[in-house]
Design brief:
heterodimer, A: alpha/beta, Elongation Factor Tu (Ef-tu), domain 3, Rossmann fold, 2 domains, 7 helices, B: alpha+beta, four-stranded antiparallel sheet, globular
Amino acid sequence: MTSFSNLYKPYLLRIERITEEAPGVRTFRLAFTDQQEKERFHFKAGQFGEYSVFGEGECTFCIASSPTRSDYIECTFRQMGRVTSALMNLEEGDTIGFRGPYGNVFPLEAWQGKSLLFIAGGIALPPMRCVIWNALDWRDRFKNITILYGARTVSDLVYKHELQEWQTRPDVNVVTTVDPGGETPDWKGKVGFVPTVLEKMAPSADNTIAIVCGPPVMIKFTFPVLTQLGFEPDKIYTTLENRMKCGVGKCGRCNVGKLYVCKDGPVFTYAQLKEMPAEY
Amino acid sequence: MQKRSIRRAQINVLLEKLLSLHQVIYAPQKLGNQVDFAPLRDLQDLTLDHIQTVRSAKAALFPPVEELLRYQRAGVETELQDRDLTNLAEQVLFGTRPCDAAAIAPLSAVFTTDDQDAIFARRLERTTVISVSCERSDGDCFCTSVGVGPGDSRGSDLLLTRLQDDEYLAEILTAKGEALLQLAPELFGPEPAESKEAHLAKVQKRFDWEALHDKLAGAFDHPFWLRTALACLGCGACAYVCPVCSCFDIQDEGSQKKGRRLRSWDSCGLALFTLHASGHNPRSIQSQRWRQRMMHKFSYMPDQLQQLGCVGCGRCSRACPADMNLIEQVENFLFA
């Protein structure tokens, strides 16, 4: 007889630490309650999970921590709907459900020897933070690492402590910006939209991979700037964030054309997106 | 494959025997003023003279609402109780039409490709399918347009075709079919002299699904969707009666302390299907959802799973309150 295991049964994870990132945005550090499950669990940068508050339902977020730090996984979410509101009410020590890891990965191994340009906006830094820490933990495998991160206002910037930490490192070039009007009197970063700041920065496309995550409007205006700078479409990576239920290509709702974001993504290149219908 | 014969009365004896073995038999019955599949309790209720049940037989393999697990919380600790799949009853799907049986392959492809959905796979393993060929069809039937036929055996373990009066051809197609024969060999007679072809319904081929598939590949932005979707109410009835539609939702029922996680039927035709918590919706208008339905069945599924998402049963056309007839839609699209 065939052996059966329930695809939809989550792991139980304990909330070890809650960090307030920005208004309505929190990071949970999560630890496996079962040691064997923890040892069997492996993921790569770019993958996501289904996080659940029992009685409320499941919600899809990336894994925001790096696979090089395997004692825990972290997720960062903004309070938006039913499940994220329920997550907001949880405390350190509570347990939540987690299914995953699902989806494809950022091909970091294939990027060895190249420069990396990270471009993120708002709440889209979390999916990139996983890759950033992964790359920083393998720092000698890459050439220049540049991070451009923008948010609407100073208080909307997430991972404020890590941004400072990256800024003090000599081996990373960090540029932060806020939308015009979002600055505070003591703001030392740039003021301007991400695509505009990128245009002025004019980073070299030579042997460089660009990773772009942000709200649709930011992505829409960033791709042309990158193209102008000489980045080929297959050297530009992003993630798609369609609504999901199952996470494993069965429930039928996250497709973009014939591709499923949960199985064929969430990581796509600009070259792929150009071939796909704009169903995201 | 073996061919035998069986008489109508002996079919009932076989079913009674299965009932006495505590097998659940889903069979077509007159329920109110329509014929539908339901667990058979009394052989008197069985009907075989209908053309098509209103709903498909998929509920026997993929129930409208199904428990995935139970949870219970005490303080900060949570306990999960997995579905016990060892006690799923053996079941028989009786009286499925060849189109319904043909729908099992695409359903299986969705649920068992790559990550196997254990609940579905286990249930399928415990299901025996006894189909009855179509003697009649109606104007909504189009099985022959999508590569199925009124006497097709695929998906069935045993296929019965009425030859005359109460004599049926019994085609024993699989090991499960063979087990049925072995259960009561005395009920089956020798292979009849006559073949089944002359006794099958004549279902006219209405369109070429390969032409449809090929045209859909370049038709994402075709004006056809916007124009024809004006009729669509977005009610999802087509998906609920469809033997292949398998999109589902996952919801929790209960409190945060105690409850269960359920999977339930959903439909790409419903406006909330792809709605994000932020309010953004990748398929925000009905034409995009109508396009998704057609694309998924006739373009994406063949490309990704090597299975057509349609078996030509015609239920969507019969169920549509706005009279959107699938054959007409396809014919219009192919000429558009």
